[in-house]
Amino acid sequence: MQITLIAIGKTDSSExxxxxxxxxxxxxxxxxxxxxxIPDIKNSKNLSExxxxxxxxxxxxxxxxxxxxxxxxxxxxxxFTSIDFSQFLQKKMNSGIKNLVLxxxxxxxxxDAIYKRSNEKxxxxxxxxxxxxxxxxxxxxxxxxxxxxxxxxxxxx
Length: 157
Hints:
By secondary structure, the protein is an alpha/beta fold.
């Protein structure tokens, strides 16, 4: 299985970028991983929220294949403990999925088209985080999940 993480817009903080790169490198020891950053929509300040979500949705969908399993990060999604998330990943791997795609939306969330295509919604927290911080948190949780599955000492219970 491959995991693809799709996010809208580049990370502005060099510190966050460095941390993301560290966990991305660690994660690649466990699974094939791709981090795809879709550029911000040009002139988005002149667009309504609905139009911006629609345009972002079109860009996201252009990177999704028919067989991909699409999971959106959404505040109304299912929440996991780290151990539960590792078991979630194991079930996905056992099911024969070729590409598990996790998507972090733009500042206004997702278009209806993305929600219709989405197979599941997950949430990292009931709190709201910046889209840039979510990237780091998610990649770290993916790494943590694989260390849990391998009984490695990274996670402490």
